[in-house]
Amino acid sequence: MKLHNSYTNETEDFKPIDGNKVKMYVCGPTVYDYAHLGHARCYITWDVLYRYLKFRGYDVTYCRNVTDVDDKILKKADKEGKTPEEVSQYWYRQFAKSMESLNTLKPDVEPFATKTLGEMISLVKDLINKGYAYEVNGDVYFRVKKFSKYGYLSKQPIDQLESGARIEVGEQKEDPLDFALWKKDEKFGYNSPWGVGRPGWHIECSAMSRKHLGKTIDIHAGGADLIFPHHENEIAQSECANGCTFVNYWLHNGFVTINKEKMSKSLGNFLTIDELLKKYDSNTIRFFILTNHYRMPVEFSDEALTSAQNGVKRMLNAKQTPIDENIDITKTEAYEKFVEAMDDDLNTSKALAVLFDLAGRANKDELGAFTVLYKLATTLGFSFNKQELSEEEIQTALKAVGEKTGKDFSSMDELIAYRKQARAEKNWAVADAIRISLDECGITLKDSKDGTVVERK
User: Fold this and answer.
1) Phi first, then psi: what are they for 284, rounded to 5°?
2) Are the beta carbons of 216 and 241 closer than 8 angstroms?
3) What sign results for the dihedral spanned by CA atoms 115, 47, 4, 1?
4) Phi/psi at 386 (nearest 5 deg)?
5) Could you point out which of 74, 127, 410, 429 has its C-alpha 20 to 30 Å from the C-alpha of 303?
6) Beta strands, E only, 327-423
7) What domains lie within the chain, and their CATH numbers?
8) Neighbours of 285 (CB within 10 A)
9) Per-residue model confidence as pLDDT tens digits over 351-377
10) CA-CA distance, 220 to 248, in Å (whole number)?
């Protein structure tokens, strides 16, 4: 298996530190607002890596942190008259719901920054004792120029970084490049050897990673926007405190763009996951993301999502047969092609092509084709459960039926009741008009003794 290591800028053979055990850390959310499509790309990408590593027999410990102490959280708490904990807990629950809706697996470990303060303080103490950090009036800073490899991950020479460095009002750094490990904060802070304050953003991940995975880990992943300064600073403080390599493989996913601009909250051009799920199901969003290589930027558009929607239908609407556990999928040509694609730095677009081929073979009643399709598709995180219809899909269907029957419907329940009455009165013209209209919208009604279920075709 080969992965592209951002640190060396090379695609390298993946060799875990300890046999088949893999320690994997992903930078998690700062919980103060809704998760957006950019977050979906990041966490679906690393969900696929997690699933695939396990599929290939690795024993993976996946750690993804939650940043629940941060300037943005404190600003929101101040504005809304709430405690930082109330803000972060509320938005963490929203994030967790969004991740569940996208069918991402929960990480094995999900530490909160505020629950790891002791480890952060210990790490800062280590850096001060070794001469890599210094305290000034309750603030603690890292001496960047004492770490000779600073800038290696982001490929930025130190003189280039110096030219853009500034000291902000209130900061008392020895050097403009130095960054905060601990910040004085008497209003929202915590007790520390340097007075009441709170951790800098970068030290959080170093402390949580060291606590839950150890001093050297196999994989550290996240969005490309975190390369500098976050991941660069993580490397500096971790390697100086621990005296060893921090991460063996750095992996980064590309941006999601709208009109060629990176999607972000600061630019105000983001689509929340919840908004997106009103129009498209989770399989469609995942398909849209996996059609593109994870390291490349992906341009969002409704046309691209509609195309992904059609691709998902073609793949997941394959003729289903019972899963045959007696089939050894590792002996199939499809498995070999799938693994070859995924082992090539997670080439998901090639892997999807294998799934399309299997769907076609399943539709031709080829023995075992659906079993192989199911097992490979679920490895990429696709769900074969019938997804709930989005509100937009329901409204489109109600409008289409209304145009054919000359009656307005406010809900699917009202439409089902109207259809039931038409059938009871043997008004087959109306019943057929409803069926045909829904069929054209890709929807079917299935009747059973427990009632009528609305499903995608």
Assistant:
1) -65, -45
2) no
3) positive
4) -65, 120
5) 410
6) none
7) 2-257 (3.40.50.620), 279-379 (1.20.120.640), 391-456 (no CATH)
8) 25
9) 999 999 999 999 999 999 999 999 999
10) 8
Tell me the C-alpha distance between 396 and 346, whole Å. Answer: 37
Beta bridge partners of 12: 3
What gap in Å lies between CA 351 and CA 311, rounded to an integer?
13
Burial class (CB in 10 A: 0-12, 13-18, 19+), 264: middle
The burial of 243, by beta-carbon neighbours within 10 Å (0-12 exposed, 13-18 middle, 19 or more buried), is given as exposed
What 8-14 contacts at long range (C-beta under 8 Å, 24+ apart), as own/partner pairs, is: 9/155, 11/345, 12/249, 14/249
Find, among 452, 371, 381, the residue nearest to 419 by Cα. Answer: 452
Q: From CA 88, how far away is CA 400, in angstroms rounded?
A: 43
Q: How far, in Å, CA of 80 to CA of 72, rounded?
A: 12
pLDDT score at 162: 81
Burial category of 270 from C-beta neighbours within 10 Å (exposed 0-12, middle 13-18, buried 19 and up): buried
pLDDT digit string (tens) for the chain, length 457 residues: 999 999 999 999 999 999 999 999 999 999 999 999 999 999 999 999 999 999 999 999 999 999 999 999 999 999 999 999 999 999 999 999 999 999 999 999 999 999 999 999 999 999 999 999 999 999 999 999 999 999 999 999 888 888 777 777 678 999 999 999 999 999 999 999 999 999 999 999 999 999 999 999 999 999 999 999 999 999 999 999 999 999 999 999 998 888 777 666 666 667 899 999 888 999 999 999 999 999 999 998 889 999 999 999 999 889 999 999 999 999 999 999 999 999 999 999 999 999 999 999 999 999 999 999 999 999 999 998 766 677 888 888 899 999 989 889 989 899 999 999 999 999 998 888 898 889 888 788 878 777 887 877 6
pLDDT tens readout for residues 304-333 = 999 999 999 999 889 999 999 999 999 999
| CB contact set of 292 (below 8 Å; sequence gap of 6+) | 254, 298, 349
Q: Is 337 helix (H, G, I), strand (E, B) or coil?
A: helix
CA–CA separation, 237 and 185 (whole Å): 22
pTM over 0.90: no
Q: Beta strands 10-13 and 2-5: pairing type?
A: antiparallel
Tell me which amino acid residue 233 is: N
